[in-house]
Structures are given as structure tokens and as C-alpha cells.
Amino acid sequence: MQHSVNNNESASYLLVSKNRIVRVLETVQDLFVICLCISLFSVMAIQLRAMFFELLPPLNFQTVTSDILFLLILVELFRLLIIYLQEQRVSIGVAVEVSIVSVLREIIVRGVLETPWNHILSACALLLVLGALLVVRVWLPPTFNGIDPERQISIRNKHISEERG
After folding, report:
1. Total domain count, the chain
2. 118-129: per-residue pLDDT in tens?
3. 55-93 pLDDT, tens per residue?
4. Residue-level pLDDT at 141
């Protein structure tokens, strides 16, 4: 009888210890993401300043367009990090949107007429796949018999964070 009580105590101690380790690791990971957010925000400010000076004459349309699209990519990445901090998950929709804008930016910066046809064909194929992914993720009904797994995870994480704080 005494032996089973000791086993239960040691099992509960290991469980508490593992939970504590997981919480510490999650906190460290959140600190890394916060550092990334601050760094990304700084890069956005520097890019915005540089873009302002490029708007002064003489105006180079291709450079300005490239900078605007790059700034939009940075904003979307920042949004992705904020969603991660709030919900402890990576938003597939935002990640696909960032990928689409990145591919389009590269095509616009290099110029469609100057880019080899096989690169354009590859970019079109990638955009089709990313667009299909976005359609599957956003417009199709949730899976698992009407249960949206991302929503369930968000709700569960919200309840856990409310219990902690």
C-alpha cells in the first residue's frame, strides 16, 4: 500500500515538473517572438523612412513599388507574429498571403518582360498552389464534422491563459 502511494507522489511530481519546464520553454519562446516583433517593427520604420526619401524627385516607379510591397510583406509578417503571441499558433491564411505577396513582389521588381518564361511559368504554378491553399483554408467549411480545429485551439489557449493570469 505504501509503495503505491509513493508511486503516485512521484508520478504527480514528474507531471508538475514537466508542466513547469513546458511553461518556462513557452515563456522563452514568447520572448524570442517579442524580440522578433521589435526587430521587425524597427526594420519597418527604417524602410518607411527610406521609402519617403525615394518618393522625392526623380521618381523611380519600380523602386517605389518594390518598397511598398516589401513594407506590406513586413506588415503581414508582423501580423503573423502578433497572432502567434495572442493565440500560440501560426495562422496559415496569413502565411499564405505573405507568400503570395512575396512572389508577386519578385515578379514586379524584376519586370515581367525581363524575366525568363520558365521563371514566370514557375511563379504562376506556385501562385496557383498558394491560391488553392488559401481557398481550402478560408472558403471551405471547417473539417472534423463541423468543428473548426483552429478555433477550438484558440478557445482552449484563451481559457488556459485566463486560468494562469
Report:
1. 1
2. 989 999 999 999
3. 888 888 878 888 888 898 999 899 999 988 888 888 888
4. 59
Mean pLDDT of 132-142: 75
Q: How far apart (Å, rounded) are the C-alpha atoms in residues 129 and 143?
A: 20
Q: Which residue range(s) make up the domain with 6?
A: 2-164
Helices (H) and strands (E) in the chain, counts: 6, 0
DSSP for residue 19:
H
Angle between helices 92-110 and 117-138 (to 10 degrees): 160
* Assigned C-alpha cell, 163: 486560468
Task: Give me 118's grid cell.
Answer: 520558365
pTM of the model: 0.66
Cα-based distances in Å from 150 to 32, 51, 65, 91, 131? 23, 37, 35, 9, 20
